[in-house]
Amino acid sequence: MAQKPLLDGIRVLDLGRFIAAPYAGQLLADLGAEVVRVERPRPEPDRLRGPHLNGDSMYFVTINRHKKSAAFNLFDEAGRRLLDQLIVKADILIQNYSPRAARDLGFSKERLLGLNPRLITLSITGYGADGPDAERVAFDGLAQARSGAMACNGSGQPFLNHLPYVDFSTALYGGFGIMAALYERERTGKGQFVEVSLIETISAFAGTYGMIAETALTDTTRHQQGNALIYALGDCVQASDGGFVIFNCIGNMFKRLCEMTGHPELLDDPRFATDDLRYANRDELMTHVTEWAGGLTTSDILAAAERFRLPFERVSTVADLVNDPHAAARALFPRVDQPGMGPIPVARQGLNLSAHPHADLRPAPAIGEHTAEVLQNWLDYTPEQVHELLEEAVAPAAEV
Fold first, then answer.
1. CATH class label, 244-314
2. Is the CB of residue 147 less than 8 Å from the CB of residue 203?
3. Domain boundaries along the sequence of the chain
4. Nearest one of 197, 69, 181 to 133, comparing CA atoms
5. What is the CB neighbour count within 10 angstroms for residue 238?
6. Please, what CATH class does the domain formed by 11-206+328-393 belong to?
């Protein structure tokens, strides 16, 4: 008999918008939780973002598939009452309002746990729940800029990483916190608040990678590295066919690199005896690697690196990844049949559990598609009560 999904029976109210909070909700949905996106009865801004297909947002589909939608006004009296009723029945609430807006909605720890002592609330902000910058508007790129990460990228003008890794990593921190809180609730019966923020996520990365200690204790600020690997040998080189390959060479890999590139004499040079020295003298070493790579095609470089068990990889485009045979073999991009759009490739969760195979994915919900279902299943409303309530709670939504 097939096992039930890991989070079967767990109910989640997802009030998240854009990336970090919706992705945290999607992670839980993929593990079997019933995740209900709560939204107003008109398109929220994240339903309108590109890229588009047939006028609809593919972006929205890929980060909100496998969820349900309940639509009503969150910002009037009837909507607040309805939201409170749903909170009483929920296991998890996800929101990414600013601290002030969250307080205005009644999302304080005391009030929420008063409504539902078992509730686990995930709060995602830009700069944290308090502090002098708590109310500032933030997005992924701003966190990259504030942390020093952006200043280390590129050469010349600082470069932004256009894959919003801070948002996605903050969602992972949030999901990790939720799972820890669920585990503790099994022992204590009590819910709690989980707070994560963009600035704390990327600051944790900077600190864990040694950048904070490096600056604080040695007065050395990490500057732009281009494509060079820090404190070891590594960079991007061009092949004879115009393609680019990036490589890393750490520790005893240097011996194999010298053999592969035809320069065994470099092993006896004291200037290249350690990773730190190879980093300090990387310009001379890179002349040899660049010359070697320039005489080979991209495929030849990768084949040689595989023979010598060295970490080299082709610099690919997204189009290359779409057609990557390894991605296909691992089923990384299943398709969901999205109404009005057709089959849309999305991403499966990057987590594999031996007892819980990946479930078939449902499309992203239309606005309010599951409102009646949620009210009947969560709150035991009759069809007549649903109609009466929606007449009151679903009206032109206020701007906030």
1. alpha beta
2. yes
3. 11-206+328-393, 244-314
4. 197
5. 15
6. alpha beta
pLDDT digit string (tens) for 206-239?
Answer: 999 999 999 999 989 888 999 999 999 999 999 9
AA identity, residue 315: V
pTM for the complete prediction? 0.94
- Detail the DSSP E strand segments found in the chain: 11-14, 34-39, 52-53, 56-57, 68-71, 92-95, 120-125, 192-197, 233-238, 244-249, 312-314, 335-338, 342-345
Give residue 288's region: left, alpha or beta (phi > 0; psi -120 to 50).
alpha
* Cα torsion angle, 158, 161, 167, 173, sign: negative
Structural contact between residues 164 and 183, judged by C-beta atoms closer than 8 angstroms: no
Among 243, 235, 232, 240, which residue's Cα sits nearest to residue 277?
232
What single DSSP character describes residue 270? G
**Contact predicate 221/215, CB 8 Å:** yes
How confident is the prediction for the chain on average, in pLDDT? 95
- Please work out, in degrees rounded to the nearest 5, the angle formed at the alpha carbon of residue 127 by the alpha carbons of 7 and 348: 35
